[in-house]
Write a structure and sequence with these properties.
The structure holds five protein chains of five kinds. By secondary structure, chain A is an all-alpha fold. Chain A contains 27 helices and two strands. Chain A has a two-stranded antiparallel ribbon with strand order 1-2. In chain A, β1 and β2 form a beta hairpin. The longest helix of chain A is centred in the last third of the chain and has 46 residues. The chains are: A mainly alpha, B mainly alpha, C mainly alpha, D mainly alpha, E mainly alpha.
């Protein structure tokens, strides 16, 4: 019963948080607790509905091939018909689950985390809108709907990253996030427009029918361009190289926001988009290769940066970039299932990692540098436990969730391309290492600052519960999903019944354990001196530490090619375009000046001009008359 | 050589031109007025000569000349009165100095 | 002789004589306002009466109608009082009435010989009326001279101002030269055709000889002088600036319109065959007027002088209608001339107040007018905008009539010049508005008498009314234009 | 309601308010304001009624009124609205009311200000509801002079003096209109033989269909109209009046000018240029598209280099008008609809921007991006207004700006792919300058200099509320707007089909 | 009159008229100019008589040589107090004036050369006075009256202008 109701009313899932945004924004903004209550209530209802939907999907015949669709015309003009609606298939159901779960937990967590902040109400408004936008994106029936919510997600990230608007860094980070993703959106929009022009529709299901026919008829050349353009959007949104720069800076927002952005919303939108339009991408091998390599490179690139970062959230951020690269890689090698599997598990453990990090920072008075922490495991046991679970999960240690999903990705990569597999495996090793570094430096060893240490305390229940729930999910979701047959549901094309490839799984696990050990050796046992290693690596260390100077390069490019050009054009506008008019006006004035001496006030010069005029006209008259006479000849 | 219309017209033209010269070159208002009178007289010669030499049926040329004379007189009268005014105002009747307004 | 045909002229002459007599009869100390009042009332009455004199469209086949038309001549084909003439006479009377209305105070405070002022204004009006009806060169010439000589004197009527006498002398010298030139032209036309009557002149084939063409050219130049067409315009700025403000107004509205009236009649009755000759010449002069008149107006710092240059440009606009050389063009000219009367009356009424009370009409003295006399400032702005042709003032409709007429005849380039220059003219008109609205206000307020107020309100209402409802005036002008050559 | 002269009432509301004000004492400031607000409310309510009672299934001109006016020119007092003009009318009244409220606190000669404002609004209203070209021109030119006076008296001097700005704006617009007038006169004369001449735009369009205008004539006349309407729409290179003008103008004038007056250019291009001179429109379309692209990119770039808020928005509006031009140039139903909708969208957002800037400037006397900062602390509501307008400006879905832009892109992409791609890339730069501006003035550390300025409240909130509702309402329910626009533009379909293969300038480059 | 005598008279008159006219404009002394002008007008009057316009000739003598000349001489006398500064004899303006005059004569000469005198001669009145009076009082009565008004206006104007602001 409830399942059907949930399915029929799936549109409520994004709408409820949006409504809560409106209510809070318009009415209850100044009443923090009330606002929080509204937001959490709405999210809870959404969450329940999402469960209902998932149940309905599981119970009913709703599969990837036979989705459930509701549509309503949004606007139409000429031949362009744009709908808003709900498309439910297992992919959607899974995403709804993940998003509602994480956002609900994050909201609960925020009740504690944001306590005392002046913008308490506002924060929940934005969080609600964020969740609503993401959910709207997930249930989109066509590209435009997806783009609409895609942009709204961008807006929310802007608002939330810049939540502490009085901080210049937050303000700039928000702007950067919006701008960078906007660059991606440009490509996406172009792609969408081309799709609309090529097929006359943007509806996923219709396109799914049309694309193969089109390829049969016209080949895939033009579609490749479209698909590449579409992929630019995910590059921006999901923080793929080279548009990854905004993601680490997004740490400027409150930590729950980081959790939300990095785990369940926003960044996975890109992955979701590629997954949703896999009917298109999977037909285009060149594009798939690009996706795979972008993903693979991003994964190892981000990991190599994460190794040297010192700020806890920044490390996590780069790990997110890296993991997203993983997901892209998975998509690129054609394994939708593994990508989304990883998306799900990653959502849980990454959310938890961030929330834990938030707890740590909360306890340490917003200190972010891990090397100024240390020894917190006694003070914050729950957080420590959660963090440990997270690290193990992300490192792919069985039986934690990450093991299963990562293994599937590696297997998929190995089946397609050996270099990609090696890349991915290497990344896995690095991931395990830097995550362990994070964990050990923060919680093990001696406190770096006794004062801060004394100040630290375990977090309250509002924050603790989400951590625990997520920790549980991080442990069980992988295994559970593996057992119930995730691949049966979330798939593209026929389901792949592959068991665990023990060779690959084993090798990656071994590598992960090795990495953990290495980290232990360095950071806990202190067998090797950290600084010495850093010094030895020299240039490489500097490159990694400074994020390969990508930000600086971009800043320089913008300064020269955008601001510089702007100044030049402005100069042109003022001094050339505008001046033409002024020159014309001056010319008119000059003519006036030129003529004015004639009006010298002397009657006789006036008479002179007059008589000159007489004579000129007379001369013309006589000339004319003589011509006339010559012409008429003897007429008279 | 027969004296015809052409001669009179040329005479009138020359007289008119001399009047023009006077108007343009003299400094004194009264002298300028004299130039104007010469010009008006030249026109009258024209009119009367046409009346005499063209196949017309009445004396309208002469009549025109008559009225022109009257108008000329009136203009001179006003002109001289104005010259008085100017002389009264500025103790000069040099046309060149009448240039308060210009530009 | 049909004296009914010249009743208007007789009436005006009587008024003029009345002014002279009253001036002699009234005691020395008496202000001559009463004379002005009588003139205003009688002229207004006559103005209204003249509406009854219009004829409808006449059917040339109908002998009775033709007989009625013959009644309109004073003497055997001379001095025609047709709708066209009636219209212009009404316009002159209207201009005079408006001028008298706002001149009352000015005359009182500035002028010395008031009775004579009124009398001479009447003789000038008489001259204009004669011009509108004249169908022979003699009458036309005499009318022209009567008007011009009256204006010479009136221009010099500000006894305490050196500018005034200077302006009068300049006007007289150049005017006399112009008289001579025009007479020379008349003599040549007479020589070519053997007649001084328009109806006979137009029948003569000898007009095509150099003699005739030279004559036409010089006659036209005489009119150009009146219209202040470039390059025969040099007198205008100085005279406008130096003359007493009401006279400047009359020069701009009356003298110019009378010139137009006579010129159109001469061109269309006496020289219609030679359109191929004078049309191109006229179009070039017209463009020159519109361009240089406006450009020169831009650099002026005295409003009267600026209006002089602007009137040169306005003459260009009116020529546009003549160039169209069809009833539509004529109608447009008459329409435009009328609305120009309203606009000028408004502007000069304001200027006469300013000049009488502040002593000058430079932009500096206009400053703050929006606060010292908001109504005057508004009237000034609206009147100037009417000259520029900005709706909803009458100028817009007027320009539309003019340029539709001329474009219909294929002169698209003139429309270009005209529209572009009229938009440029907004620049200097707005400078006046700027001075009035933005200039520093010295805190004083201007006294505006009832009659002046009546003049400005009447003129501005007319400007706006004609702007939003041009129909009435358009019908009248249409009637005048379409019955012109019957 | 059947015979109620609704449009006349809408037109007369501001006019009668202006007349009424003439008889109100200049010291009775409150009554002056209330009269204006009341008049504009009446106008707005009636317009909203018209908007929702317009029968889209029938389409075409509705609420028609027709009284012969000037018979010898063939002018009728003919009013009516269709799917293209009704949104513009609604926009006018919305912004008009908002402008009245945002001028509430004017201290200097308020009576005169409001009289001029009412004339201005009446003029703009008239252009959109006129079915007769004469009325269109009349109303269009009526607005220019009040604007000039308002700029020089109530304006502000920044980079250029307000006198210069006002004069520049006035002369530019008038020069444009001069060319336009020539075109209109030629059109009027060409359409019908002398006895049948009329200024009725539908009749002119019918004449065009009947072949009264040769192709050469259309090309020529359209070019003239383009000069006129293009400079009104701030088409490159006739755009430079726009930023200076807005910077100099008082708030209400900036709102109305950027919000609606400018749109007369686009409206005229469609109503007159496209409907009456279709072949001319087709011929010049590639040029327009090219200029449109320059508008978008060039102005967006320049906006990046601006520090004065009004200049940023001024250039931004130039940039946005590029989209309108692009939509027009593509000459298909979708893109033209987008152009119309974008005019509405830009009108609302730029009016909101100017209202907010005006509020801030009125309080702080600062307009520089460099000096203002952290206003979100002291003025959260104003900040919300800025954010709404800014987000709409960068085309955020869910606000009014997105859907028109998308429609334009869809419509124009197939016609001018290269220009369209470049124009679309403008969304990046738009976002860049908008976000930079917002970030600098709204966010960042609290600045105690602004502590004693209070947030907008009461009447000062009205512009934000009125325009905000429109901004969000049309954003979430675009069909409200698009349905209306579509019912107007779909009538163009046969026309557009007919000219599809007509020749175009530059060999019709794409 | 024989043709030769006619020519002789004409040329003599022409020489007188042009000579005196030149004297008027070239003479530095205003009084001399005025006297020369009178002489010139007398010449013109005689010329009228040779053109069989005897009444006009008489009018010319009376008004111009009489009235106008006296008026001018009076004007010279009244305003000449100590003035009469002769400007430098031949400056640019005079050159300009001379050129202009010469061009005018040339153009008119051209015009005149085109004239074909129609056969039949002109209208020769037996009694010019009667004929003129007839026209003036019949056909052209209106201009006649208006001319009267004109003279009245000029008189009035001359009086007030000459009186000026000074005396009452």
């Amino acid at each position: 019963m409830f399942n059907e109701f949930a399915l029929e009313h799936a549109w409520l899932i994004p709408l409820l948080p949006a409504v809560s945004f409106v209510i809070i924004g318009m009415l209850t903004r100044s009443y923090g607790r009330l606002s929080a209550a509204i937001a959490v209530t709405m999210s809870t209802v959404s969450f329940l509905l999402a469960i209902g939907v998932a149940a309905a999907v599981a119970a009913g015949n709703i599969t990837v091939d036979a989705p459930f669709v509701q549509k309503l015309s949004w606007f139409h003009i000429g031949g362009v018909e744009i709908s808003m609606g709900v498309l439910i298939d297992p992919l959607t159901a899974m995403m709804l689950m993940v998003v509602t779960t994480v956002s609900l937990l994050v909201q609960i967590y925020s009740c504690g985390y944001m306590k005392g902040d002046a913008g308490y109400g506002r924060f929940f408004a934005f969080l609600s809108l964020f969740a609503g936008s993401m959910l709207g994106l997930v249930i989109a029936v066509n590209f435009l709907q997806m783009y609409v919510f895609w942009e709204l997600v961008g807006l929310c990230s802007y608002l939330l990253i810049g939540f502490y608007y009085y901080k210049v860094s937050a303000r700039e980070a928000a702007k950067k996030a919006f701008m960078t993703t906007r660059v991606g959106d440009f490509g996406l929009l172009l792609g969408i427009l081309l799709l609309q022009l090529t097929f006359g529709t943007l509806d996923f299901l219709e396109l799914q029918q049309l694309v193969p026919l089109y390829i049969l008829q016209f080949g895939s050349g033009f579609l490749t361009i479209i698909a590449l353009l579409l992929f630019v959007g995910p590059i921006g949104k999901s923080g793929q190289f080279p548009l990854h720069v905004w993601l680490p800076d997004a740490m400027e927002g409150p930590t729950p926001v980081s959790a939300l952005i990095h785990a369940a919303t926003m960044v996975v939108a890109g992955v979701y988009l590629v997954g949703r339009s896999f009917f298109l991408f999977s037909q285009l091998p060149e594009v798939m290769t690009v996706i795979a390599w972008v993903g693979g490179f991003t994964a190892i690139f981000a990991a190599s940066i994460a190794i040297t970062q010192r700020q806890i959230k920044r490390i996590l951020a780069y790990s997110t970039v890296s993991q997203l690269g993983y997901m892209m890689l998975a998509l690129g090698v054609g394994s939708l299932t593994s990508s989304f599997f990883h998306l799900m598990t990653h959502a849980f453990f990454k959310a938890m990692l961030f929330l834990s990090a938030g707890a740590v920072m909360h306890a340490m008075a917003e200190e972010a540098d891990i090397f100024k922490m240390g020894g917190l495991r006694k003070k914050m046991p729950v957080t420590f436990a959660a963090m440990t679970v997270g690290v193990l999960a992300i490192s792919g240690i069985p039986p934690f969730a990450g093991f299963f999903s990562k293994d599937e990705i590696l297997a998929a990569a190995a089946s397609v391309s050996t270099p990609l597999y090696i890349l991915a495996t290497l990344t896995a090793f690095m991931t395990a290492f830097y995550m362990a570094r994070l964990l050990f430096v923060t919680f093990m060893g001696k406190p770096a600052s006794q004062e801060a240490y004394d100040h630290a305390h375990e977090v309250g229940w509002f924050m603790r519960v989400p951590l625990i729930v997520l920790a549980v999910l991080s442990v069980v979701s992988g295994l559970w999903a593996h057992l119930v047959g995730f691949g049966e549901w979330v798939r593209f094309g026929p389901a792949q019944h592959e068991g665990i490839n023990w060779l690959i799984a084993g090798s990656s696990t071994v590598l992960a354990v090795l990495a953990l050990g290495l980290a232990w050796k360095i950071y806990v046992a202190r067998s090797w001196d950290v600084d010495a290693i850093a010094a030895k690596c020299g240039v490489l260390y500097q490159l990694s530490f400074h994020k390969f100077y990508i930000d600086e390069i971009y800043a320089a490019l913008i300064r020269v090619f955008v601001d510089g050009a702007a100044k030049v054009l402005y100069w042109i506008d003022v001094n050339i375009v505008d001046n033409i008019v002024n020159i014309l006006a001056g010319l008119v004035k000059a003519v006036g000046e030129l003529l004015s001496p004639a009006e010298n006030g002397q009657a006789q010069s006036y008479a002179g001009v007059y008589l000159c005029g007489v004579i000129i006209l007379l001369a013309y008259g006589v000339y004319y008359a003589s011509k006339l006479m010559a012409m008429l000849g003897g007429a008279f | 050589m027969t004296i015809g219309l052409t001669h009179y017209l040329l005479l009138a033209a020359v007289l008119f031109a001399i009047g023009m010269f006077g108007v343009l070159s003299k400094r004194n208002i009264i002298a300028v007025l004299m130039g104007i009178e010469l010009m008006l007289n030249a026109v009258n010669i024209n009119l009367i000569a046409f009346n005499r030499y063209l196949p017309v049926h009445d004396l309208s040329g002469q009549l025109m000349a008559l009225f022109a004379i009257a108008v000329g007189v009136a203009e001179v009268a006003v002109g001289i009165a104005l010259a008085f005014r100017i002389y009264h105002d500025r103790s000069t009747i040099n046309v060149d100095e009448l240039n308060r307004m210009k530009g | 002789m049909n004296f009914a045909a010249i009743s208007t002229e007789i009436f005006i002459l009587c008024l003029g004589l009345f002014a002279i007599v009253m001036d002699l009869v009234l005691p020395e100390q008496e202000s001559r306002k009463s004379i002005g009042g009588v003139l205003i009332f009688s002229l207004t009455g006559w103005f209204l009466y003249m509406f009854t004199l219009y004829n409808g469209q006449l059917d040339p086949m109908d002998p009775a109608a033709m007989a009625a038309l013959a009644d309109r001549f004073f003497y055997q084909g001379l001095y025609l009082v047709d709708n066209y003439a009636l219209f212009f006479k009404q316009m002159f009377i209207l201009a005079t009435v408006l001028t008298l209305l706002f001149a009352a105070d000015y005359v009182q405070s500035v002028l010395r010989y008031r009775g004579e002022f009124y009398a001479l204004l009447m003789t000038a009006l008489l001259g204009m009326c004669v011009l509108a009806s004249a169908t022979d060169f003699l009458t036309m010439f005499i009318g022209l001279e009567l008007m011009t000589i009256s204006f010479y004197i009136l221009t010099g009527a500000r006894m305490n101002s050196k500018d005034s006498s200077e302006a009068a002398v300049k006007y007289l010298i150049i005017g006399s030269v112009s008289t001579a030139v025009m007479l020379y032209g008349i003599s040549l036309v007479y020589g070519a055709t053997g007649s001084i009557q328009f109806f006979e002149v137009c029948r003569s084939p000898h007009l095509f000889f150099p003699l005739g063409i030279a004559g036409i050219t010089m006659v036209l130049i005489g009119f150009f002088f009146k219209l202040s067409v470039i390059p025969f315009h040099m007198w205008a700025p100085d005279v406008y600036q130096g003359a007493p403000t009401p006279i400047t107004a009359m020069l701009a509205m009356g003298s110019k319109a009378a010139g137009i009236a006579a010129m159109m009649r001469a061109l269309f009755v006496a020289f219609p065959m030679l359109g191929i000759y004078w049309l191109p010449m006229l179009s070039v002069l017209c463009a020159a007027c519109m361009i240089f008149g406006n450009i020169m107006a831009m650099r002026q710092r005295d409003v009267k002088r600026m209006l002089a240059y602007s009137s040169i440009a306005q003459a260009g606009y009116m020529l546009v209608g003549i160039i169209a050389a069809d009833p539509a063009g004529m109608k447009a000219v008459m329409f435009y001339a009328t609305l120009y009367v309203f606009a000028n009356a408004g502007a000069f009424a304001v200027l006469s107040v300013v000049e009488a009370q502040k002593g000058s009409t430079s932009y500096r003295h206009m400053a703050g007018l929006a606060q010292s006399a908001p109504v005057l400032a508004a009237v000034m702005t609206i009147s100037l905008l009417s000259m520029a042709g900005i709706p909803p003032t009458a100028g817009f409709a007027g320009k539309l009539y003019l340029f539709t007429a001329v474009v219909d005849q294929g002169y698209l380039w003139l429309a270009f010049v005209g529209f572009v220059m009229s938009m440029i003219s907004v620049y200097y008109y707005l400078l006046v508005a700027k001075a009035m609205y933005l200039g520093a206000w010295d805190g004083s307020s201007l006294a505006v008498s009832g009659s002046t107020r009546a003049a400005v309100v009447l003129s501005v209402l007319a400007t706006l009314l004609v702007g939003v409802w041009p129909e009435g005036l358009a019908e009248l002008t249409n009637l005048a234009a379409s019955t012109f050559l019957q | 309601m059947e015979n109620f002269p609704l449009l006349t009432t809408v037109l007369l509301a501001p006019i009668s308010a202006a007349l009424l004000l003439c008889f109100v004492s200049a010291r009775a400031v409150q009554s002056v304001r209330v009269i204006c607000a009341a008049a504009m409310t009446v106008a707005l309510v009636l317009t909203v009624y018209a908007f929702f009672s317009y029968d889209m299934s029938v389409g075409g001109m509705q609420f028609m009124e027709d009284v012969p006016w000037i018979t010898d020119l063939g002018v009728h007092y003919a009013l009516g609205v269709d799917g293209i003009s009704l949104p513009m009318l609604l926009l006018t009244e919305l912004i008009g009311l908002a402008a009245v409220f945002s001028s509430w606190s004017i201290e200097k000669r308020p009576k005169e200000f409001y009289i001029l404002l009412m004339i201005l609004i009446a003029g703009v209203t008239g252009t959109f509801i006129a079915r007769d070209l004469f009325i269109f021109l009349l109303c269009y030119e009526v607005v220019v002079i009040p604007i000039y006076i308002m700029v020089i008296i109530w304006g502000s001097t920044k980079r250029v003096s307000k006198e210069y700005a006002g004069m520049k704006l006035t002369i530019y617009l008038l020069m444009g209109s001069a060319f336009m007038l020539v075109g209109v006169v030629a059109l009027y004369l060409q359409a019908f033989p002398p006895e049948m001449r009329t200024f009725d735009m539908q009749a002119l369009a019918a004449a065009a269909q009947a072949g009264s205008f040769s192709e050469e004539f259309q090309i020529f006349a359209f070019f003239l109209l383009l000069l006129g309407f293009g400079s009104l729409l701030s088409m490159f290179p006739f755009h430079s009046w726009s930023p200076d003008g807005y910077a100099g103008a008082p708030t209400a004038v900036s709102m109305i000018h950027a919000g609606v007056l400018k749109k007369i250019g686009g409206y005229g291009l469609i109503r007159l240029g496209l409907l009456v001179l279709p072949l001319g429109a087709k011929f010049w379309a590639p040029l327009i598209a090219g200029l449109a692209m320059i508008n978008v990119m060039y102005a967006a770039y320049i906006a990046l280099a601006q520090h004065d808020l009004k200049y940023v928005i001024g250039y931004s509006s130039v940039s946005h008008m590029g989209y309108v031009l692009l939509g027009f140039a593509a000459l298909n139903v979708v893109s033209v609809s987008g152009a119309v909708a974008n005019m509405v969208a830009h009108g609302v957002m730029s009016a909101l921007f100017f209202a907010m800037i005006g509020y801030v400037y009125e309080r702080t006397h600062l307009r520089s991006v460099r000096e203002l900062r952290g206003l979100a602390h002291q003025m959260p509501r104003v900040a919300t207004g800025f954010m709404l307008a800014g987000m709409a400006s960068l085309g955020l879905p869910g606000l009014i700006g997105f859907m028109p832009e998308f429609t334009i892109f869809v419509g124009s992409f197939s016609e001018y792919p290269v220009f369209a791609v470049l124009a679309i890339s403008g969304i990046i730069f738009t976002a860049l300058y908008t976000l930079r501006m917002l970030a600098r003035i709204l966010f960042g550390p609290r600045d105690s200099r602004f502590d004693h300025f209070e947030d907008a409240r009461g009447v000062a909130m009205m512009p934000l509320i009125i325009l905000g509702i429109a901004l969000v309402g049309f954003g979430i329910f675009p069909q409200l707007l698009m349905g209306m626009v579509g019912s107007g533009t779909e009538q163009l379909l046969p026309l557009l089909d007919r000219i599809a293969d007509a020749p175009a300038v530059l060999g019709g480059i794409r | 009159m024989s043709e030769l005598a006619g020519s002789a008279v004409f040329f003599a008159l022409a020489v007188v008229i042009i000579g005196t006219a030149l004297g008027v404009v070239l003479n530095k002394n205003l009084v001399h100019s005025a006297l020369l002008m009178t002489a010139c007008f007398i010449g013109v009057g005689i010329l009228y008589i040779t053109l069989e316009a005897d009444f006009l000739g008489a009018v010319e003598f009376m008004t111009y040589s009489g009235g106008v000349a006296i008026l001018i001489v009076m004007g010279v006398m009244l305003t000449h107090r100590g003035e009469g500064v002769p400007s430098n004899p031949f400056n640019g303006r005079e050159l300009f004036a001379a050129v202009l005059a010469a061009v005018f004569v040339t153009v008119m000469g051209l015009v005149v050369t085109f004239i074909q005198i129609p056969p039949g001669g002109g209208f020769v009145s037996g009694d010019t006075v009667a004929d003129l009076a007839d026209m003036m009082l019949n056909t052209y009565i209106l201009p006649f009256e208006i001319a009267a008004t004109l003279l009245l206006a000029a008189l009035l104007g001359a009086i007030i202008l000459a009186k000026g602001d000074g005396e009452a």
